[in-house]
Design brief:
about 180 residues; alpha/beta; Rossmann fold; seven-stranded mixed sheet; about 35% helix; globular
Length: about 180
């Protein structure tokens, strides 16, 4: 069974984070919500607090197939400021393991050099941070083991792209149909 982790920092975009968790769990992908704050509950950019499954220090990164970063402000900046997470993200990228980010969070991938020559998208105004990428206005871009999404309104497309990566196109289509998307 595939296993992913969605990382939560104070100020994350609630819809982007929880849509991925919901869709992936519906698809039977083991999905953990991880706090990088040291707290068991993390509050998003719109004041919604969510209880986490684990703290960053409790994560077995070797058991994960993908790291997922939701956007939101200041959530994206808070994720990028977490040195341990950035070290793991770099390792996943270098090993060809899955990395995914939506909204403002693809800027982290740009800053770390992951997007060179890749198709990528981000929230409008963050395109300049997608360093050396082929920037698109598509709702989601999949480039090998790197997935980027544009923003909250694209959260279902982003989540379904992750489901497709691990469960196949037919499973993602069936899930989309099941949620009346």
């Amino acid at each position: 069974m595939s296993k992913i982790a969605v990382f939560f920092a104070t100020g994350y975009e609630e819809i982007e984070a929880l849509t991925v968790v919901d869709l992936c769990r519906r698809a039977k992908i083991e999905t953990e919500m991880i706090s990088v704050t040291g707290e068991d509950s993390v509050t998003g950019s719109h004041g919604i607090a969510v209880t986490m499954d684990k703290q960053f220090e409790e994560v077995d990164f070797d058991s994960l197939d993908m790291i997922v970063l939701p956007g939101g402000m200041p959530g994206t900046k808070n994720l990028e400021a977490h040195q341990g997470l950035m070290e793991q993200l770099d390792r996943f990228y270098k090993e060809g393991r899955g990395v995914a980010a939506i909204c403002a969070a693809p800027s982290i991938f740009g800053h770390r050099g992951y997007l060179k020559g890749r198709n990528a998208c981000a929230y409008p105004g963050f395109e300049s941070h997608l360093e050396n990428a082929k920037v698109s206005e598509n709702s989601v871009e999949v480039s090998e083991h790197v997935i980027t999404g544009r923003g909250m309104g694209c959260a279902i497309d982003f989540g379904l792209a992750i489901v497709e990566r691990f469960c196949g196109k037919e499973a993602a289509q069936d899930l989309a149909k099941g949620i009346i998307y």
